[in-house]
Design goal:
A hairpin with a 2-residue loop joins strand 2 and strand 3. This protein is α+β, with helices and mostly antiparallel strands and 194 residues long. Helix 2 packs antiparallel against helix 3. The chain has one domain: L,D-transpeptidase catalytic domain-like (Beta Barrel). The chain has an 8-stranded mixed sheet, covered by helices on one side.
Length: 194
C-alpha cells in the first residue's frame, strides 16, 4: 500500500482475511439469488450499523444482503474533523463509483453533509464560504468539498472487513465489495447509524 493511497482513500492499515456474505433474515424470508446483484437494483439504499459492524443493502423495503464491515480506527464516535479516525453518522449519498481504487473498488460517500456543515460552522471549524460550498454540493447531489477541516475522502471500499483499520471509511472484503459495486448506482442513499 502506498502512502499516497492512504491519503487519497483515507484508510491506514491493510485489512485481511476472507469473510463470506452473511444472509440475513431481518426483513427477508429467503436469501435473494446472487443473480439479482449482478445488475443495478431499483430504489436501493445502504444502511450501516456501526455498533453491529454490519451493512445492509435494501431494494425498497426488501433486504437483499447483509455484509460485515470494518470502520475507522476510532469507530464509536461520529466524525467531527479531519484525522479523527471516526466513521461519520447521518444520511449521505453515493457521489462516485471508482473502479480503479487503491482499495480494490470504492464508492464515494457524500461526507460532509449539511448537518456536518452546520455543526462545523457553529463551532467555527469551517468558514461561511466552506459551509455554502458543502450545502450547495449536497443540494445538487455532487461531491462535497473534501478538503475542509471537517475531513473528507470517506468511501465504502474493499481490502478487508476483519477489523477497524481505516481513517473513517467503511471497508468490506473484496468479494462482497464487487457484489455491492455492481449493484448500486451514483445517487443511492447511504444511512450510517451508531
Amino acid at each position: 500500500m502506498k502512502t499516497v493511497a492512504l491519503i487519497i482513500c483515507a484508510a491506514a492499515l491493510v485489512g485481511g482475511g476472507l469473510l463470506s456474505v452473511i444472509y440475513s433474515n431481518e426483513q427477508a424470508s429467503t436469501a435473494v439469488s446472487s443473480d439479482l446483484l449482478n445488475l443495478p437494483v431499483e430504489s436501493t439504499r445502504i444502511v450501516v450499523s456501526k455498533s453491529a459492524r454490519r451493512m445492509r443493502l435494501y431494494s425498497g423495503d426488501r433486504l437483499l444482503r447483509t455484509y460485515r464491515v470494518g470502520l475507522g480506527f476510532s469507530p464509536v464516535k461520529d466524525k467531527v474533523k479531519e484525522g479523527d479516525g471516526a466513521t461519520p453518522e447521518g444520511e449521505f449519498y453515493i457521489f462516485t463509483k471508482n473502479p480503479q481504487s487503491d482499495y480494490f473498488l470504492s464508492l464515494g460517500i457524500s461526507y460532509p453533509n449539511i448537518e456536518d456543515a452546520e455543526r462545523g460552522l457553529r463551532t467555527r471549524l469551517i468558514s461561511q464560504a466552506q459551509y455554502r460550498q458543502i450545502v450547495e454540493a449536497n443540494r445538487n447531489h455532487t461531491m462535497p468539498p473534501q478538503d475542509t477541516p471537517l475531513g473528507g475522502l470517506i468511501y465504502i471500499h474493499g481490502n478487508g472487513a476483519n477489523k477497524d483499520w481505516t481513517w473513517g471509511c467503511v471497508a468490506l472484503d473484496d468479494k462482497e465489495m464487487k457484489e455491492l459495486f455492481d449493484a448500486v448506482q451514483v445517487g443511492m442513499r447511504v444511512i450510517i447509524e451508531h
